[in-house]
Amino acid sequence: MHRVRVWDLPIRLFHWALVSAVALSYYTMKLGGAPFVFPVEIHARAGLVVLGLLLFRWGWALAGSHHARVWHFLHGPRAMRDYLRALWRGALPPYAGHNPLGGLAVMVMLLSLSVQAISGLFLSDDVFFQAPLYDQVSTATSDALRTLHHWNGQLLLVLIGLHLLALLIHRLKGERLVGAMIHGRKRLDATPLDAPGETVTRDAGRPWRATGLLLVAVGVVAWLWRL
Question: Which positions fall inside the Cytochrome b561 bacterial/Ni-hydrogenase domain (predicted)?
Fold first, then answer.
């Protein structure tokens, strides 16, 4: 049994903050939003939080820890093919971070969430609410972004459903992905195929990078919040 450290604290905090913000955003638009008096306003604020979290995550995908970096969880066509073949045979190849299929799903999810958060900055309900950057585009552009926002929101629901299904399948196969995202460690029966190896050392500068990225994200959200 191999117990490996996978997810650093910034990734875990990002993940659960994102889950909370997306859930609040969905609740205020799709499920009535009680007891909020103006659910659309809460929806917009939650969207700004999502945008800030995504700004941090894209930065952490370039400068974060080993398994958080985009080039470590995006795999080539051969790795994807081998992983799918192994799944077809009923095996679950050991990956500490995202497996080839999961890494692709994460990228699609991050892109879809980014489209949703950015498009929401240019919308209006034509009654009570105007997003921070609504006045910066034409009415036709805002209407097109509203359509994009709607259909991408439907895509997000599908992606979230597939994500939950994947969590269930992995749990049935003995891999506790939710627990790993809480305490940061994963138990594997074999050496993970994506192990960093001896050449990868602990980067002492990462806390400062995380702080810098967080300050940038907070600054952008604060500016948009005040518009």
Answer: 6-184
CA dist 77 and 102 (Å) reads 13
N-term to C-term CA, the chain: 53
Q: Which residue matches tokens 């209006």?
A: 124
Return the ∠ at Cα 21 (arms to 71 and 115), rounded to 5°: 55
Nearest to 105 by CA among 169, 174, 162: 162
If you compute the radius of gyration of the chain from its CA atoms, what whole number of angstroms results? 19
How many domains is the chain built from? 1
Q: What digits encode the pLDDT tens for the residues 15-71?
A: 999 999 999 999 999 888 889 988 999 999 999 999 999 999 999 999 888 889 998
Q: How far apart are CA 34 and CA 27, in angstroms?
A: 9
25 token code pair: 């955003």
Question: Domain with 217 in it: what CATH number?
Answer: 1.20.950.20
